[in-house]
Amino acid sequence: MLSKKNKEALFNPLSKDNPILVQILGICSSLAVTASLEPAIVMGISVICVLAFSNVIISFLRKTVPTNIRIIVQLVVVAALVIIVQQVLTAYQYDVSKKLSVFIGLIITNCILMGRLEAFAMHNSPWPSFLDGIGNGLGYTIILVIVAFFRELLGSGKIFGQPVIPQWCYDHGYMDNGLMILPPMALITLGCIIWVHRARNKDLQED
Amino acid sequence: MNKIEPAFRPGGKLSKLESVYDGMETFLFTPNATSRTGAHIHDGNDLKRTMITVVVALLPALLFGMYNIGCQHYLAIGEDVGHFTKFVYGLLAMLPVIVVSYAVGLGIEFIGAQIHHKEIQEGFLVTGILIPLIVPINTPLWMTAIATAFAVIFAKEIFGGTGMNIFNVALITRAFLFFAYPSHMSGDAPFVKLDSAFGMGAGTPVEAFTGATPLGQVATSVGEPTMTNIVNHPISLFDAITGFIPGSPGETSMIAILIGAAILLITGIASWRIMCSVFVGGLGMAALVHLPALQSTTYPASMLDPVMQLCLGGFAFGAVFMATDPVTGARTKVGQYIYGLLIGVFAILIRVYNSGYPEGMMLAILLMNAFAPLIDHCVVSSNIKRRARRAAAKVKEG
After folding, report:
1. Has residue B144 been placed in a domain?
2. Which of B33, B72, B206, B229 is the most exposed, fewest CB within 10 Å of its CB?
3. A32 versus B222: which is more confidently predicted?
């Protein structure tokens, strides 16, 4: 079940081959949905589901799909799964789905999805593809959560919507940093994470 | 200084602080590394001398800024005191900001240089004095500290330090404050210091007190814009030129800024092409929006007289000290004209048509900072093309 290769497919994307930090994919959505933790986590879970199942489906179809229309087939599969996720969210998590607005729909255009389908699912059997989808989705989610944690903490003084900065700080003149709520700061936060990550993994540094 | 030198060279017990030592030595003495033989043309101006000249050029604005802080303060609390008291109050009010700005900025630069074992570049000498001049006097010190640290790290160090930055570091500091803590950067509160400075000049504001800057008032006014000083007397062009109006410390007085401009131009440090074209661009745009057909009460700033427009807010200060920054500005001659003109045009455009940003100069300069390399590239490549055509024509003739 978990051979060495499968383990790599599952765990490599968490850090050494992280879709955001190393492959620099899915930046757009990670800037848009990380103003607070809750939407970031819901977004992460949605991407994990879509990525894992689309990987499996494409992997099953990989021998029957003619090469010249493979992108269209992949898109149809992803779009169908995204619509399912969207409907589930509107049914059970209406507030969050309002917050995420178009970004759930835009999972279709998330580069991580097409990247994994093309690079992995088209050449591997369903079970490794499933693990690869879970791994990459998790790698994406971890980064989303880290960025959202800092942005929500510094930007609105809250974590999961709960105020965590004590009142006496505000009384002594502390203020929430409005810039953290704006997308530019998400990019800079992400840059800092990449900075720390590269500094710790010497083999990833390029000249 | 020479006696303690060996301790800092590799092998010495303080060798970890070599960069710090070098920095201090060249700051205090002329560097030893001037050529002694042969036909070298050497300008005695190294980076540090250039920087110090700019600081000297900033002094009039700084001193007037301090005096004006005192003036506004005592006007607000309705006390009549001597000029010297006003100046000392302003000095005491500004001193902490200057100290914080230098301590944070130089601290980060020293640490950065030491980590990379590079020579310390004193680029922060000017930035450190610009920051207190463009940050409203009431900004809490910790905000200034965070903004300075952010600007030095993210606008300068990650691009490779002094001389490599794309954006003006002092303006990034202000932009950070502006977007992060908007309530401390515009409106009634930030520009006039009301509480006492080190126990000096305590008092309560008089009844008619309003603290908004003239441009802030224009942006929020309905119909014909009216500008008043902090105790509700109308402001004339003369006030705007002498600078007895509320605003960031360095930006209020046209006279002080023009003295600084003269110093920069005489010593040849700032580019007169940029400076002039900013004013021309700003004046042109202000005159354009002032045309009867384009004036409207929806955009109250369009009803300002063009000359008044240039004398208010940070326009002049930005044009003289920020736009001319040789690192972030355009370098080709034609490019400098284009760069300057567009700064002036955008500053007025933002002021007039976006009431959310009553002060457009900061955003205009930062925007054009981003485009300066592109402008230079276009100028250079069009030069190359023109010469290639000329050469081709010659070949044909010959």
Report:
1. yes
2. B33
3. A32
Count structural domains, chain B.
1
- DSSP helix, strand, coil percent of chain A (3-state; round to 5): 75, 0, 25
With respect to residue B39, please indicate whether it lies within any of the assigned structural domains. Answer: no
Q: Please name which of A124, A146, A136 lies closest in space to residue A48, comparing C-alpha atoms.
A: A136
Distance from CA of B7 to the nearest CA of A (A): 31
Q: Give dist(CA A17, CA A23) in Å, integer.
A: 7
Q: How close A168 comes to chain B (CA, Å)?
A: 16
DSSP at A163 = E
Judged by CB atoms closer than 8 Å, whether chains meet at A180 and B180 is answered as: yes
Instruction: Please state, in angstroms and rounded to a whole number, the distance separating the CA atoms of residues A186 and A144.
Output: 10
Helix ranges restricted to H, B181-305: 214-220, 237-242, 254-266, 272-290
**Cβ contacts of B143 on chain A, cutoff 8 Å:** 175
A179: nearest CB among B140, B176, B184: B176
| Cβ of residue B179 closer than 8 Å to a chain A Cβ | yes
Burial bucket for residue B148 (CB in 10 Å: 0-12, 13-18, 19+): buried
DSSP string, B182-203: GGGTSSSSTTS--S-BTTBS--
- Cβ <8 Å between A179 and B179: yes
Global pTM reads 0.83
Name residue A159's beta-bridge partners: A162
Residue B362: domain span: 47-381
| Strand blocks (E) in chain A | 158-159, 162-163
ipTM of the complex: 0.82
pLDDT on residue B1 = 59
CB–CB of B179 and A180 under 8 A?
no
Is B217 among the domain residues?
yes
Q: Which residues of B touch A179 (CB under 8 A)?
A: 176, 179-180
How far apart CA B294 and CA A90 sit, in angstroms, is 48
